[in-house]
Specification:
Blueprint (H helix, E strand, L loop, with lengths): L13 H9 L3 E2 L1 E4 L4 H10 L4 E4 L15 E2 L6 H5 L12 E4 L2
Parallel strand pairs: 2-3, 3-5
Antiparallel strand pairs: 1-4
Amino acid sequence: VFGPVIGIEQVDGIEEAIASANDVRYGLAAAVCTRDIAAAQQCAAEIQAGMVRINRPTVGAALNAPFGGIKQSGTGTHKEQLGPTVMDFYTISRTIWFGS
């Protein structure tokens, strides 16, 4: 399915939540809802996704931010995705959004 889908899973803590989020083949985008800034920062650092949004939906992309997934969500050509902000070929760019 390529479209809006929500999956809700009950976990026993942040470590299990991050492990569950990373236990997939794809890594286009992730969203985390929390009031705990330390948990948000840990999720942003450890979730394996090209875009991580904190207290924001996963849809859409900012035109001024690098866009692209990792794992099997990437297209394999980062130059086309990143344009003038292209970095070293072996660098994975990630975008983190924090909402209120």
